[in-house]
Design goal:
The protein is mainly alpha-helical. The protein has helices spanning about 5-25, 30-55, 60-75, 95-100, and strands at about 80, 85-90, 110-115. The protein has four helices and three strands, in the order αααββαβ.
């Protein structure tokens, strides 16, 4: 298989996984999605890292640490509103500087909880 075949296969697999996860998230309860957030994030990083390594093996030395960093930041900054059942990723630096680090949901105003407790 050439690189073009791996690129095509990568986008097909990634698209199928995204559609399957979307359908899955509609069918399961909120607490199940909350418990499985860590597993799904790590699995996604492994799949992306594997395909990127197959596509550009020498560049994988640079790509893999960035994929791990992105997955770590996703796990660290994702919070959940138990009231309106929404996942919130707090990356907005400007809002944190202007308004302070608020721990409230933007949609309903209730307290946020971390997906992964400290």
């Amino acid at each position: 298989m050439g690189k073009d075949d791996f690129v095509t296969l990568y986008f097909i697999v990634l698209g199928l996984i995204a559609v399957a996860y979307f359908v899955y998230s509609l069918m399961v309860e909120f607490e199940t999605r909350r418990r499985q957030h860590k597993t799904i994030t790590i699995l996604s990083a492994v799949i992306i890292g594997t395909f990127m390594s197959l596509i550009a093996l020498p560049a994988a030395v640079l790509i893999i640490p960035f994929i791990a960093l992105i997955a770590f930041q996703n796990l660290r900054h994702t919070k959940v509103c138990v009231n309106c059942r929404k996942f919130i990723q707090s990356y907005n630096l400007r809002s944190m500087i202007v308004h302070g680090a608020k721990n409230k949901c933007l949609k309903c105003g209730s307290e946020l909880e971390k997906v992964i407790p400290e």
